[in-house]
Amino acid sequence: MELLTQKREVFGRAVKPLRAQDMIPAELYGHGTENIHLSVTKKEFTRVLNEAGESTLVDLVVDGEKHPVLIHDVHYHPVTDEVLNIDFYQVRMDEEITTAVELTFVGEAEAVKNLGGILVKAVSELEVTALPANLPHDIKIDISKLANIGDTISVKDLVLPENVQIDADEDTVIATITEKLSEEEDKAQGEATDLSSIEAEAEKPADEKADSEEKPAA
Description:
Blueprint: E1 2-4, E2 6-7, H1 16-20, E3 23-30, E4 33-41, H2 42-52, E5 58-62, E6 65-76, E7 83-90, E8 97-106, H3 110-115, E9 118-121, E10 125-130, E11 139-142, E12 152-154, E13 165-166, E14 173-178, H4 183-202, H5 206-213
Parallel strand pairs: 1-5, 3-7, 8-11
Antiparallel strand pairs: 2-4, 3-4, 5-6, 6-7, 8-10, 9-14, 10-13, 12-14
């Protein structure tokens, strides 16, 4: 998968006109390269990000030369969610790297369909170590095997190629089935939460209570 880029000579606030032209400022760094300032079209980057994610190798083309990279970091605007800038990390193909890989949950849990259980996804990604060419795009989690309340899928249940190592405790729970609370249990849990907040307030020292109850002057 290739992504065409252009070198840029503008920095800081001067990149604003770039964004107005649907270009995104980017940085390339890593093994065998000096830091290179780049720009990439928003349309092409969005396409590659959707296909590759952050754990699949991308051939970044700079002045006709291909650089094997991972999309290392994407910075978003906190309000508009627009991509502000991108970090590309150049890798060595003969050196293992560690990166986070997204989990994709597939199938339908029998315990949800037949017993009314609740599927709890405890983990959304896992760190793995592998050679760049062996990094998986995602890790598929088959939840159809969850047939009973209390069933779980843990790291030790995953089957990955031998050349891919998961960097997590084998007992780490990825997904589990819990029993749906009855209306009475749900109500009791809510009341317990309310009581705990009341008790916490009651345990405050007298001077703290006075401070918290004091109103600002008009």
